[in-house]
Amino acid sequence: MFAAYAARIDRDKPLNGLELGERPEPDVPLGWTTIDVKAASLNHHDLWSLRGVGLGEESLPMILGCDAAGVDADGNEVVLYSVIGATGHGVGPRERPSILTEKYQGTFAERVAVPQWNVLPKPKELSFEEAACLPTAWLTAYRMLFTNAEVRPGDSVLVQGAGGGVATAAIVLGAAAGLRVFATSRDETKRRRAEELGAEAAFESGARLPHRMDAVIETVGAATWSHSVKSLKPGGRLVISGATSGPNPQATELNRIFFLELKVVGSTMGSKEELAGLLNFCAAKGVRPVIDSTLPLDRAREGFEKMATGDLFGKIVLTV
User: Fold this and answer.
1) How far is CA 281 from CA 63, 175, 177, 200, 305, in A?
2) Which of 174, 197, 284, 314 is the most exposed, fewest CB within 10 Å of its CB?
3) Is the peptide bond before 61 cis (omega within 30 degrees of 0)?
4) What Å distances lie between residue 120 and 100, 273, 278, CA to CA?
């Protein structure tokens, strides 16, 4: 079967390790099932895998891709939950949970095998391309907002770095849930797009805001950390799920964090139940993932290059 896979690890030039070509059909252990992939979306996790983060040389070659929507053996349209072994289903009792592509072959292929437990029905309201955007970036944003930020309708939320997959999802989901969403970006076009998607206002990175926020959604890391901390009300929550600009800010703002009793919450992915809630929310409220571009699987390298340069707004989807 045709697939996009990591053949080598290159920490400095990750795309050097990306290959497109034939790979063996997936193994299907007891309790697992095979899904015919219709659409799969890219995540920064895929670039990090090519750099060897979470993926060792001993696991190569590894088909990349965490997210997918497709059709099961009975003809049902389905969405895949990306965390394998979250509750032990389909794996050994002592195996730690992992995301597809860390240990098990991923979704950038004609077919993928996952535990039966990891398969959810796709709402008919969502296309395969839309559904394929949800299991990682959009699920991460959903958990950040509604589980870890603990915000309610009317609360103010700052989303740093408008344009990335998680940030874009947080803007759309927050606005749909009745939050006052504000966003930042260095790029004027991305600021304008953020407002079109429901942000009350969008500002230059680091700009003074109209008021302090109840919560900040942080995926940028070092470049925006100080601004995020300074943007919060006393008792506010800073929820972080990534650090695309680096993990070590120049100033940690510890004095402000303890004096104002701010809460810093780490957030990674989400549960299968939260993914089911996200699917239902999108179907019921007409919320649709923002898709930057759609490419056939054999043009996956173009998608990786676009993501590596940051020249995107929303998700890049590969179709099979």
Assistant:
1) 31, 13, 9, 21, 32
2) 284
3) yes
4) 16, 10, 12
User: DSSP code of 213?
Assistant: E
End-to-end CA distance of the chain: 11
User: What was the pLDDT predicted at 92?
Assistant: 84
Numbers of helices and strands, H then E, in the chain: 9, 18
Determine contact, residues 139/130, Cβ cutoff 8 Å: no
As a whole number of angstroms, the distance between CA 182 and CA 184 comes to 7
- The rounded distance, in Å, linking the Cα atoms of 239 and 135 is 19
pLDDT tens-digit profile of 267-307? Answer: 999 999 999 999 999 999 999 999 999 999 999 999 999 99
Strand order in the sheet with 201-203: 201-203, 180-184, 156-159, 213-218, 232-240, 263-266
Name the DSSP letter for residue 37: E
pLDDT under 70 in the chain at which residues? Answer: none
Tokens describing residue 18:
């990306």
pLDDT score recorded for residue 260: 97
Rg (the chain; Cα; Å): 19
How does DSSP assign 63-101, residue by residue?
E--S--EEE-TTS-EEEE--EETSSSTTS-TTPPPEETT
Q: What is the pLDDT of residues 206-251, one digit of tens each?
A: 999 999 999 999 999 999 999 999 999 999 999 999 888 889 999 9
State the CB neighbour count (10 A cutoff) for residue 47: 18
Closest CA to 40 of 301, 317, 300, 290: 317
Q: How far is 183 from 191, CA to CA, in rounded Å?
A: 7
